[in-house]
Amino acid sequence: MNIKPQDWHNTRLLEYIPKHFTRFKLGSTVSRLKLLTWIEFNTSGRYAIAGEVTRKEGAVGSAMVLKEEFIAFEEPADATMYSLFYK
After folding, report:
1. What are the Cα distances from residue 85, in Å, to 5, 35, 39, 65, 81?
2. What is the number of other CB atoms lying within 10 angstroms of the CB of residue 40?
């Protein structure tokens, strides 16, 4: 059996997105369980799923903020796999 140290120590999934990770915007209809399962079987590096709140220019009231979710990968090969094959 080949156990990866990152899996053993549960360090693959990060709670924040470091600046050097390759980011992708997640759609609102993405199933979190399906996504995590696909990542576990098809990638090998670290990844992060996090939300980002940004302020819209010129918006008034509650429309002033925009929350978007992103997924990001540390390894360029994992980012390529996700962009080409995850549906």
Report:
1. 26, 12, 11, 32, 6
2. 13
Q: What is the tens place of the pLDDT at every residue in 38-66? A: 999 999 999 999 988 877 776 666 667 77
Contact assessment for residue 56 and residue 63, using Cβ atoms and an 8 Å cutoff = yes
b/e 43-75 (16+ beta carbons within 10 angstroms → b) = bebbbbbbeeeeeeeeeeeeeeeeeeeebbbbe
Strands 47-55 and 13-14: parallel
pLDDT, greater one: 87 or 1: 87
